[in-house]
Fold:
Amino acid sequence: MAITHFEAIFKLAVLTLLSSLLLGSAPLRAHELQPTIGDLRVAGETAELVLRINLEAFLAEIDLDAVTDTNDAENAEGYDDLRALSGSEIAARAPLLLERWNSLPMLTVDGAPVPLDSVSVRVPEGVDIELARVSEWQLRADGIDAAARTLVFTWPDGAGAMVLRQQGVEEPFTGYLDGGQSSPEIALAGGDAQTGWQAFGSYVPVGFDHILPQGLDHILFVLGLFFLSTHLGPLLWQVSAFTLAHTVTLALGALGLVNVPGSIVEPLIAASIVYVAVENIFISGLSRWRPLVVFGFGLLHGLGFASVLADFGLPQGQFIPALIGFNVGVELGQLAVIAMAAVLIWLAVQAARAAPLDGMEEEVREHEVMFRALSVTGSLVIATIGAWWVVERTLL
Structure:
């Protein structure tokens, strides 16, 4: 009975850890939010801004700074109602956003506010109702002073992440804005391309954000590596193999040298989660083949990371620093996941050792026995979720 008591404590610990990461995970891919991409061009007296944007999320007034999935929003039902509308109905409502945006103002040229007008809205039809829909919205401002030299772009509070890309000039500005942030002054003639260090620094949070909080499938895989053993050596071997592999395919994918459809990559990533979790249940140490298998799965995860960079785009003149920054952000995110898991396990160990010990055999106190109970429970949960994702991403 003593072992059962300890196992109960550790099962509670692992379920607490996983539930904090997995709450609302069943519809993970259905309403996952992506950053808005804005391409800004100023030519003569006209400024043009083309947005790739989830209009339904904005029309539903979801706080995109606070959530990464519309199902987690207070007004998720309103989003679902909007998502069920036709493309033409959404397009008709899009200009309602402009009045608030122009009042910021969103675009300032040489310190003077410049209102934007809606030119066209293209909302794709035939997109699965369970998937986010990315629309293309063209905005324009006329009457720009021909002698103007700089502009500042402001992204609204609660609008989530945005990538702003200047077009049509040499050494264009590319920047990453969070909701409520303004760009630095951008020279209309160009020349404001990021330095290598700026590009590196701006893409570190992009990579980190893709792990925490957005990369639930990658989080589960990393936890699967962590749950193999209490010893540091096996974890280092696995993490090193995983890091090396996903760095290779991330670079190849970002360079356009490798392009595997998401319909193939995503189910295989889910299968990798199932594999490491199931293996944890049957073995408790590092096998000879495990690092090689992890390396193979890391190649798949790297392709998944590359698809994220395809959404953001990389600065033309600072491709390598931005790519390295993104990868560093991913690594920091993975280390944060491991650190969180280690802290929770340490707390659970302390709680278990503080429990009554009457009649308990000495070996039950051992950390390895405690961790094994935790590993099996956690791996069962991870394998179950991964198996569902395999089915969902393959058949649904």
Strands lie at 36-43, 46-53, 107-109, 112-113, 117-122, 135-142, 150-153, 162-166, 174-177, 186-187. The longest strand covers residues 36-43. The longest helix spans residues 319-353. DSSP finds twelve helices and ten strands in the chain.
